[in-house]
Amino acid sequence: MEDLFAYSNRLIAEVNTDFVRYAYQQVNWNNRLLGLIGPRGVGKTTLVLQHIKMNLPVQQTLYVTAEDFYFANNRLLDLADSFAKAGGQYLFVDEIHKYPDWSRELKLIYDYHKDLKVVFTGSSVLDIKKGTADLSRRAVVYSMQGLSFREYLRLFHQLTVPVYTLEQLLAHEIELPQLPRPLPVFADYLKVGYYPFAQEDDFDTRLQQVINQTLEVDIPTYAEMNVSTGRKLKQLLGIVAESVPFKPNMSKIAEILNISRNNIADYLLYMEEAGMVAQLRGDTTGIRSLGKIDKVYLDNANLVYALAKNNQNIGNVRETFFINQLRVNHEVLSSTTADFRIEDMDFEIGGKNKGGKQLADAKRGFVVKDDIEHGFLKTIPLWYFGLLY
């Protein structure tokens, strides 16, 4: 255990706390068993290390990763037992899904050690959600996604911008004198600003590794797929990437991929849970519309630029950004009169010349325009919606 402590202390000492992600304020760190899940590469490890450094006594805290060779010959349950007996109070287990039978052992740790607080993280969202079903009434699980445009401004440009509510955006209460020309940096954000690791070299290569790991390892392992089926996932993601946006035609996709149409809905759900796509659903009023998927987008705009290469559709990029940023605090549904509906509001997305004819009959309708710095009346700049978290 001495080597584990040395590794833990080194990582805690090295982590930078100048910038902390939005999820930090949303998590109740006092829970006795707490999970933090999200797609690969969004900064979960950094967040837990920052929490330790800023709040916890290092002598009573241990951070481990389930990928450590230590667990080749040792059980997590035994580590927790030894740690608690030695006076340990806070145990953090990163990449928990890499540890076999992790949910059962966490349950035992929770039951055996009443004074030990445990935090676990996982990138394989599918497996985590499956495992947390065994931890009902014990674990509190939070989800985390990539950088908002607001966070990107802080991390990449050292510009501190407050969080705004949706109603504040719609009322044009945005005051950012520190950002006189938002459009160039917003364009950069759409291409490389969603993942914190864009600060490092070889962003394109790193993002491709995230995509490959998710589609070739995480999902196939969870769903017990073979290698050839994993390749079908990549083909399906490619189809979504170059669509405008993608409206599911199960029969046509099945023909292109040479698979059963009955499997496609499952594949899309797996990719949604793993942070590769976002599915836009209709209003769930009534049995017939329950769960109906109207459109499928890539999860975030960075993925569009990475996967569609030179064939990006700018309308697709705009809509992808909108649903990605709004879904953190709001339920985003498809609209019968516009592109999106949130509560009693309809939103039509477009460029600076976009009109509002579709919204003539809307109770509360807004035109969201890209390529404009400031809004007026019912016209809202697209970049405003990156300030919500």
From TrEMBL:
SUPFAM superfamilies: P-loop containing nucleoside triphosphate hydrolases (SSF52540). The keyword ATP-binding applies. Keywords: ATP-binding, Nucleotide-binding. This is ATP-binding protein. GO terms for molecular function: ATP binding. SMART domains: AAA. Residues 30-157 form the AAA+ ATPase domain.
